[in-house]
C-alpha cells in the first residue's frame, strides 16, 4: 500500500488500491459519483455484466492486468433484501459470500443440496474481516450503517415466496441476494486478494414484483456508501 505523509500533522496515511466490480453501468456510475477525482488512481470501478460467471471473468481480468496489486476487491451493486433483515434503501456488507443455488435439486424437502453437502467443494467465501471493520467504520463516520451478514449469490433471482424461504433457510442470517458476489469472491480467492461485497437494497427477496423495485433509492445509497468509504480511506 502506498503511504502518504501528512506533514503538518506528522501522520502517515496508507492509500489502499481497491477494485470495485459492479454488474451494470448504472451501478458503476453510481459508485463513481461518490468518488472524488483524487482517488481515481487508487480505485478502479468496472461493470462486469450480470451473473457470477461474467463477474468472475471480468474480476480475474482486471486483477491480472493491474499495474500494481490490489489490496481489496469489492463486489458492489443493488440487491434484494431478505425481509426483517435488510429494508429497501439500506446497505448490506457481506460477512460471507455464498452461492446459494450451486448444488442439486431434490424431490424431497428442502428441495436442494449444496455442493458442500454433495462433497464437491465449497459454495462459500468468507469476506475479509479487517476490511469489513474499516468499511463499517467509514460508513458510520458518515452517519450511515450496514447490516453485516451473509450475502447470497444466485444465477436466477428469487421470484417466489417458497424459493425465498428455502434460500433463507439454507444460509441462516442471510440478508441480501445478488447475482455476482460469489464470482468476484472466487476470482479474488484464487488470486489471494481480500474480498467483500456491498449491496444497496432495491427490492425485497420474494414474489417477483418489478414495479416495487426502488432502483433509484438503491443507487443513491450506493453513491452515499462509496462517498463515505472514499472520504474515510483517501481524504
Ligand atoms: O433498470 C435499471 O435502471 C437498472 C439499474 C441498475 C441495475 C439494474 C439491475 O437490474 C441490476 C441487476 C442486478 O441487480 C442485482 N439484484 C437486484 N435485486 C436482486 C434480487 O432480488 N435478486 C438477485 N439479484 C438482484 C443483481 O446482482 C443483478 O446483477 C437495473
Give the count of structural domains.
Answer: 1
- Which sequence of strands runs across the widest sheet? 5-11-10-6-12
Range of strand content: 25-35%
Rg, please? 18 Å
Low-confidence stretches: none
Total of helices: 7
CATH homology superfamily: Nucleoside phosphorylase domain
Query: Could you name the CATH topology?
Result: Rossmann fold
Structural class based on helices, strands and sheet pairing: alpha/beta
- The sequence of SSEs as H and E is EEEHEHEEEEHEHEHEHEH
Number of strands: 12
CATH architecture: 3-Layer(aba) Sandwich
Shape: globular
What's the end-to-end separation, in Å?
15 Å
The kinds of small molecule bound in this structure are: the ligand O=C(O)c1cccc(C(=O)CC[C@H]2O[C@@H](n3cnc4c(=O)[nH]cnc43)[C@H](O)[C@@H]2O)c1
CATH top level label: Alpha Beta
Helix content: 25-40%
Function: Catalyzes the hydrolysis of futalosine (FL) to dehypoxanthine futalosine (DHFL) and hypoxanthine, a step in the biosynthesis of menaquinone (MK, vitamin K2).
EC number: 3.2.2.26
Domain Nucleoside phosphorylase: 45-231
Family: Belongs to the PNP/UDP phosphorylase family. Futalosine hydrolase subfamily.
Report on the structure:
A hairpin with a 6-residue loop joins strand 7 (103-105) and strand 8. The protein is built from 7 helices and 12 strands. It has 235 residues and is an alpha/beta fold. It binds the ligand O=C(O)c1cccc(C(=O)CC[C@H]2O[C@@H](n3cnc4c(=O)[nH]cnc43)[C@H](O)[C@@H]2O)c1. The ligand O=C(O)c1cccc(C(=O)CC[C@H]2O[C@@H](n3cnc4c(=O)[nH]cnc43)[C@H](O)[C@@H]2O)c1 is lined by residues 23-24, 26-27, 50, 77-80, 154, 157-158, 177-180, 202-203, 205, 215. InterPro entries: FL_hydrolase_MqnB (IPR019963), Nucleoside_phosphorylase_d (IPR000845), Nucleoside_phosphorylase_sf (IPR035994). Belongs to the PNP/UDP phosphorylase family. Futalosine hydrolase subfamily.
Amino acid at each position: 500500500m502506498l503511504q502518504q505523509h501528512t506533514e503538518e500533522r506528522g501522520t502517515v496515511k496508507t492509500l489502499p488500491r481497491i477494485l470495485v466490480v459492479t454488474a451494470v453501468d448504472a451501478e458503476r456510475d453510481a459508485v463513481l459519483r461518490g468518488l472524488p477525482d483524487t482517488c481515481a488512481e487508487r480505485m478502479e470501478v468496472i461493470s462486469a455484466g450480470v451473473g457470477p460467471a461474467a463477474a468472475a471473468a471480468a474480476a480475474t481480468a482486471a486483477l491480472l492486468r493491474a499495474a500494481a496489486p490490489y489490496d481489496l476487491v469489492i463486489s458492489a451493486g443493488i440487491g434484494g433484501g431478505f425481509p426483517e433483515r435488510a429494508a429497501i434503501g439500506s446497505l448490506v456488507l457481506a460477512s460471507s459470500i455464498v452461492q446459494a443455488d450451486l448444488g442439486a435439486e431434490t424431490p424431497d424437502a428442502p428441495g436442494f443440496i449444496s455442493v458442500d453437502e454433495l462433497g464437491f467443494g465449497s459454495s462459500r467465501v468468507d469476506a475479509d474481516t479487517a476490511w469489513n471493520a474499516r468499511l463499517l467504520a467509514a460508513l458510520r463516520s458518515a452517519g450511515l450503517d450496514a447490516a453485516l451478514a451473509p450475502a447470497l449469490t444466485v444465477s436466477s433471482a428469487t421470484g417466489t415466496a417458497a424459493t425465498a424461504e428455502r434460500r433463507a433457510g439454507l444460509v441462516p442470517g442471510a440478508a441480501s441476494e445478488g447475482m455476482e458476489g460469489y464470482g468476484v469472491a472466487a476470482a479474488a480467492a484464487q488470486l489471494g486478494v481480500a474480498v467483500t461485497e456491498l449491496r444497496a437494497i432495491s427490492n425485497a427477496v420474494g414474489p417477483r414484483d418489478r414495479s416495487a423495485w426502488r432502483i433509484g433509492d438503491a443507487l443513491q445509497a450506493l453513491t452515499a456508501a462509496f462517498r463515505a468509504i472514499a472520504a474515510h480511506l483517501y481524504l
